[in-house]
Amino acid sequence: MSQPNYSRLTVLSLAVITLALIPPFVFAQQRGGAPAAAAPGVGGIATLTPAQTTAITTMDQAIKAQTAAATAARTAFIAAAFADPVNEADLKAKLAQLTSAELALANARADGFIKLQASANKLDAGQVAMLIARVERTDRTGGPVAGTQERPMVAQFDADKNARLDTAERARAVEFINSTGAGQGFRGGGGRCGNRPPASPGVKLTPADVKNHPDAPLYDAAVLRTFFIELENPNWEAELVAFNNTDVEVPAKVKVDGKTYPDVGIHFRGNSSFGVGNGYKRSLNLTFDFVHKNQAIFGYRALNFLNANDDPTFLRTVLSLHIARQYMPAPKANLVRVVINGENWGIYANAQQFNKEFLSENFKTIEGTRWKVPQGGGGGLGGFRFVDQDANSYRPGFHIKSGSSGITWLFFTG
Questions:
Q1: Any bridge partners for residue 259, and if so which?
Q2: Which residues of 260-290 are buried (b: 16+ CB within 10 A; e: fewer)?
Q3: 20 to 30 A Cα–Cα from 101, which one of 145, 181, 262, 345?
Q4: Average pLDDT of the chain?
Q5: DSSP assignment of 171-192, as one string?
Q6: Which neighbouring-strand residues pair with 303?
Q7: Using CA atoms, how far apart are residues 193 and 119, in angstroms rounded to an integer?
Q8: Could you say which DSSP state residue 411 is in?
Q9: CB 355 within 8 A of CB 401
């Protein structure tokens, strides 16, 4: 195969992300064994050989000086921005220095990438396409980190490029996960819950068996709504487990209060609560605008159903948030019943998502940066443990949910 030609801009983009992409490759190799060859890899998906991973790491080591200069420029810019009073001339000068240092670093990485492509470890078209596909996701999340950050998989398996995975694409993704261990994140077993007996099926329920509440607010504490979730895969639980801690949403039909909502994205959520074991209920996230961008339920685009793990009262979340809301902005919450493929999975706490709807309700604006600690606690960083003044040191511990930029991360430690 002839080597494709890349513009300087493409080379710069690829070079900027190569270091950020190293951890997931290393993680996949540690879990599933080093791949024997380069692309296409398992299930037709591009992977890196150990030699290529080493070459990219070596390339990064060669630009330590430029990296250090860029870090110093970021620190100086932040100091100037938060000076009291702000010296406008100094701030402008620091911004110019920062821009120059970042450009020098990007050019050094681009030069390194060009050398890589001229070596025996050059990347083929499939591997380059894989890196390009992850550029947007890497920028938005601050870079995937093994074992903590949500691992992007949609870009790898989205053959029709509609930004989601259909049935066949998800099947290929599950095959890849089962073959390599990539994307599974924290897997739930039964050991964390002691000697529990095997889970037994819930009773069957239909919409005709429950009362509808079409006129009551979504978070009305006096109302118990029943959400009927229909997933096309009979083995839906195993599919959701496989996609835990990835960016894959499994589409479902949701019926509530006599109304049907098509193509709602479903995924498991939670940290310790995810480890309850198969057959026991796990927390759920429902994304109503997953496919249909204007679809919402009572004006809300996303719902969180919490499984009340280790809470026999089922009231801790609802009660604590009710008390908190008397004194400060806090999510709303009530109880709901969930039925999946006709089987009653019991009572869940329905806790409001911390998103634009929450901001609009409580602060009358949707501006500002929203952060999230990823599954697993962000490697211990999610508790605001101090590391140093470099914002990059905290990237494994936080997701930016409202859109990322270099400036956002620069002000993280300001």
A1: 256
A2: ebebbbbbbbbbebbbbbeebbbbbbbbbeb
A3: 145
A4: 78
A5: HHHHHHHHHH-TT--S---SGG
A6: 286, 352
A7: 52
A8: G
A9: yes
Token code pair at residue 273:
């609560």
The H or E element spanning position 334 is strand 333-340
Q: Number of helices (H) and strands (E) in the chain: give both, helices first.
A: 12, 9
Beta pairing partners, 371: 400
What backbone phi and psi angles, to 5 degrees, belong to 63? Answer: -115, 30
Give Cβ neighbours of residue 379 (< 8 Å, ≥ 6 apart): 145, 147, 148, 396, 397
DSSP 296: -
CA nearest neighbour of 404 among 28, 171, 139: 139
Length of the chain: 414
Residue 15 has pLDDT above 50, yes or no: no
List 351's β-bridge partners, or say none. Answer: 304, 333
Q: In this structure, are residues 10 and 48 in contact, taking their beta carbons and an 8 Å threshold? A: no
Own/partner contacts of 162-166, CB < 8 Å, gap of 24 or more, are 164/249, 164/251, 164/265, 164/290, 164/291, 165/248
- In the block, tokens 């057959």 appear at 279
Model-wide pTM > 0.70:
no
| Residues 216-271 pLDDT 10s | 999 999 999 999 999 999 999 999 999 998 999 999 999 999 999 999 999 999 77
User: What's the rounded mean pLDDT across residues 271-279?
Assistant: 82
Distance between CA atoms of residues 138 and 363, nearest Å: 29
Which contacts qualify for 26-34: CB closer than 8 Å, 24 or more apart? Answer: 26/53, 26/146, 27/146, 27/147, 27/182, 28/180, 28/181, 28/182, 29/53, 31/180, 31/181, 31/182, 32/179, 32/180, 32/181, 32/182
pLDDT value at 350 more than 90: yes
